Amino acid sequence: MRFMHFDLMHYELSDCTTMSTDELVLQNLVYHEQLIVQISEFDHIPPALKQQQSRLKRLKRDAVNLERQVKSLEAQTQRTKTEHEGLSSSTKRRFVANVAGAAGRKDKFEARVSEKGRCGRGPQN
User: Which residues lie in Basic and acidic residues bias regions (predicted)?
Assistant: First the structure.
């Protein structure tokens, strides 16, 4: 796009005094038409600006929503991780208790067997 230099003093003052108004208008007609064409080339700018502003507003709203989703998912992940760690340590404790308990029960069972006989019942009378 070529911009024309806008010159209010297109003609020297001496030329203007000898010409009639109609002659001046006709001589400047091409220049003014070019100005009108150049101005019309900018007609798309206001709607395009509104469209871009609307798009920017929508993108900002989407960014806020995505940030909320990320925070929610981070909290959910943290809760799940905490539950898993709790479950994991609880499972470990139960396993250790079962193993230790089984060993303890085995010792008690062997003690009872040796005391009362092979079947675990008292002496038969």
Answer: 105-118
Give the 3-state DSSP-derived string for the chain, with helices as H, strands as E and coil as C: CCCCCCCCCCCCHHHHHHCCHHHHHHHHHHHHHHHHHHHHCCCCHHHHHHHHHHHHHHHHHHHHHHHHHHHHHHHHHHHHHHHHHHHHHHHHHHHHHHHHHHHHHHHHHHHHHHHHCCCCCCCCC
pTM over 0.85: no
Instruction: Region of 118 please: left (phi>0), alpha (psi -120 to 50) or beta.
Output: alpha
pLDDT (tens place) for every residue of the chain, 125 residues total = 444 454 544 545 455 567 788 888 888 998 999 999 999 999 999 999 999 999 999 999 999 999 999 999 999 999 988 877 766 676 777 777 777 776 666 677 677 777 776 554 555 54
Residues whose CB falls within 8 Å of the CB of residue 16, separated by 6 or more in sequence, listed in order: 24
